[in-house]
Specification:
570 residues; mainly alpha; two-stranded antiparallel sheet; globular
Length: 570
């Protein structure tokens, strides 16, 4: 790692730590205190009145039912918009309707916060579909993620002497406040900055121009900045263009790249402080953030190192490889900007790309996989990242309790068999989805027919697809043609299970913990802050989360790297 590269990486993390507390405090005030902006408060009251929403508490089952109902309606609406987009306005290119299987996959993808895209946005989706369907769903999916986290946090932190008090908030209130007070103002400011940097924002039809060589070229226009803002700030990841943030109309400059890198992890990091404020245990919140930051620094360091190495297959050619593995990367971002972006894209559930991840070195691509396979808890998506981290915290505290021979406690509440079973099911859910989908696809001809690369890299591409879908990330190794009925349907199913069943398990724990009696801490209580806790939590994440996939990683990235060093290709 060069000095300049290290300074750039260090500056991003320092800035992130500086912004965590003020934004985290603002988020706490939005959800748990009287609302800060009078004019928005009145607008909120109008929305509540029109929607028939009462600001009353819900139990975990009612909360979950509201969450699922809202998202099912969203999937249905976005599906219909795509099916009938040829009849809808704002379609200057006269794009046809989307096929039913791709429409289903896309509707599920954007509702589950995955933003997996088995299509090229500029040639498949109209402006109406991009704006009214996909961009709006980005707001809703991000709001749903924060709502799920808030419900779990309230269940764990709630103090009450009334055993019948089992309310964990109101889904509709949490959702609307997320959109109204967090994402709309944040995206308005962010989109203006992006437009200032050169990101498109218009409704012009595609421009047909003549190049200097005399050839014709079509240049896609559209409302890009507004979608780009929520794509990044809401850790959604779905791009207006097929090239995503590698496209100069989405991410034109090194400064816009820097803005996207920081904003991608800003809210997930800030929520750790919000959680510390909600639980009145700031040390615990900072410990969770420290765990995320340490794992993220390790990840970006490895990516930077692997991508800085030359390609052995090109060593016999008279080429200078001093800048590293530049295949599939944008020169305006360089290795550092690409490594940071890719690391944060897979640390979070965002999954945007400013480079071709399929062109990363085998070990560099492996780190992207590991970031997701850990459970999308290194920052993770807005809300759901910390939601998942808390499930691993429960397991860590349970293991610590077993080691000292006493009933484990979290914030003074006993963690009993019911909670542990839910947490274990949560952790086991993702390996089941990922490995089942991957193994079926490599055994079936209709799964293998989508591969452009055979051998271990082909396995990595299929593994990456199901990992990205189940973990609701959305990034891809683009050598896999995923726009087939098999992949559209199975990946949509993986997204739904990975999103909604995991939230169900977490909310079930919240409902079980919300009205438990609180015991006072004593000398035997395991501390949930400090170096010991961080070390245990990191160990559980790496062993329980990542080690499960070690055999398939050996057959994929490790084997591919061994062949690469021998000069073998497929």
């Amino acid at each position: 790692m060069t000095l300049i590269g290290g300074l750039q990486i260090g500056f991003v993390f320092i800035l992130l730590l500086v912004l965590t507390k003020p934004l985290g405090l603002y988020l706490y005030n939005v959800y748990e205190k009287p609302l800060p902006f009078l004019f928005l408060r009145r607008f909120e009251e109008i929305i509540f009145r029109l929607g028939g929403i009462k600001n009353e508490g819900q139990g975990w089952k009612a909360y979950m039912l509201s969450l699922v109902l809202f998202n099912v309606i969203g999937i249905f609406v976005v599906f219909l918009i795509q099916i009938f987009q040829n009849y809808l306005p704002l379609n200057p290119q006269k794009l046809p309707a989307v096929s039913w299987d791709l429409a289903l996959n896309t509707a599920v993808s954007f509702a589950t916060h995955t933003n997996w895209q088995a299509y090229s946005g500029e040639t498949t989706m109209s402006y109406f579909t991009q704006m009214i369907g996909l961009t709006w769903q980005n707001f809703c999916a991000a709001g749903t993620g924060i709502a799920a986290f808030l419900a779990l946090a309230r269940g764990l932190a709630h103090h009450s002497v009334d055993e019948d008090d089992c309310m964990i908030g109101n889904f509709w209130v949490d959702l609307i406040r997320s959109i109204l007070y967090v994402f709309l103002p944040g995206c308005f400011i962010f989109s203006l900055l992006l437009v200032y940097q050169g990101v498109l924002q218009n409704f012009s039809p595609t421009l047909d121009v003549m190049t200097l060589e005399g050839a014709k070229q079509s240049i896609t226009m559209g409302p890009v900045a507004s979608q780009e803002a929520i794509k990044i700030l809401g850790t959604n990841g779905g791009g207006f263009f097929n090239a995503n943030s590698a496209h100069p109309f989405e991410n034109p400059t090194s400064f816009s790249n820097f803005l996207q890198i920081v904003c991608l992890v800003l809210i997930p990091a800030a929520l750790t402080y919000t959680y510390g404020k909600m639980t009145q245990n700031f040390h615990h919140g900072w410990s969770l953030l420290a765990t995320m930051v340490i794992l993220s620094i390790i990840g970006v360091t490895f990516i930077y190192y692997f991508e800085s190495q030359s390609n052995p297959l090109l060593s016999h050619l008279p080429l200078s490889q001093g800048m590293g593995n530049l295949e599939g990367k944008e020169i305006r971002f360089g290795i550092v900007g690409t490594s940071l972006f890719a690391n944060f894209a897979t640390d979070t559930s965002g999954g945007p790309a400013n480079a071709m991840y399929d062109s990363f070195s085998p070990l560099g691509g492996m780190i992207l996989l590991i970031n997701m396979l850990i459970g999308e808890v290194i920052f993770g998506g807005v809300g759901v990242g910390l939601f998942g981290m808390l499930m691993f915290v429960m397991i860590s505290v349970f293991i610590a309790g077993l080691m000292v021979g006493r009933t484990p406690e979290y914030f003074g509440k006993k963690i009993e068999g019911k909670e542990v079973r839910f947490a274990i099911l949560y952790v086991a859910l993702y390996p089941l989805i990922i490995l089942l989908g991957t193994s079926w696809s490599i055994l079936a001809s209709y799964g293998l027919s989508s591969l452009e690369n055979m051998g271990p890299h082909g396995l990595s591409e299929i593994l990456y697809a199901y990992t990205s879908a189940a973990e609701n990330n959305g990034s891809a190794f683009a050598g896999l043609n995923a726009n087939t009925p098999w992949y559209n349907i199975t990946l949509a199913l993986s997204m739904c299970i990975g999103r909604f069943l995991s939230i169900y398990l977490g909310l079930a724990i919240a409902g079980s913990m919300v009205n438990k009696k609180i015991a006072l801490a004593n000398a035997g209580t395991f501390p949930t802050q400090g170096i010991l806790f961080i070390s245990l939590l990191m160990g559980v994440l790496l062993i329980v989360g990542a080690l499960t996939f070690f055999p398939v990683m050996v057959l994929g990235p490790f084997l591919e790297n061994a062949y690469l060093l021998q000069g073998k290709t497929f």
